[in-house]
């Protein structure tokens, strides 16, 4: 049976992630409070951020930058700034 969470990003009950996709405390917070749908939205933004900023996931600073953007997006509703990307209007 699918696990549901009260997704803080989408502000609704939705299917939760099947397992913790991100390590540590942040990962646990995402697992407990973020839906599959919201995490999928983040993954699209993450890909754009990695490409645009030429991030190297082997670099601690790049991972920290991405984690800050992820937490801001998922928990505070802050859209990451992506050059040339205009988010669709609701």
Automatic annotation (TrEMBL):
GO molecular-function terms, A-Z: iron ion binding
Alphabetical list of InterPro entries matching this protein: Fe_traffick_prot_YggX, Fe_traffick_prot_YggX_sf
Pfam families linked to this entry: Iron_traffic (PF04362)
Gene Ontology BP term (one): cellular response to oxidative stress
Keywords: Iron
Gene Ontology annotations for the cellular component aspect, listed alphabetically: cytosol
Taxonomic superkingdom: Bacteria
Function: Could be a mediator in iron transactions between iron acquisition and iron-requiring processes, such as synthesis and/or repair of Fe-S clusters in biosynthetic enzymes. Necessary to maintain high levels of aconitase under oxidative stress.
Family statement: Belongs to the Fe(2+)-trafficking protein family.
Protein name: Probable Fe(2+)-trafficking protein
Organism (species): Glaciecola nitratireducens (strain JCM 12485 / KCTC 12276 / FR1064)
């Amino acid at each position: 049976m699918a696990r549901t969470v009260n997704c803080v990003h989408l502000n609704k009950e939705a299917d939760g992630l099947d397992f913790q996709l991100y390590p540590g405390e942040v990962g646990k917070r995402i697992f407990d409070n973020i839906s599959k749908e919201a995490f999928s939205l983040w993954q699209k933004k993450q890909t754009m951020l990695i490409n645009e900023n030429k991030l190297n996931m082997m670099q601690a600073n790049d991972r920290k930058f991405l984690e800050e953007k992820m937490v801001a997006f998922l928990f505070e509703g802050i859209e990451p700034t992506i050059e040339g990307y205009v988010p669709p209007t609701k």
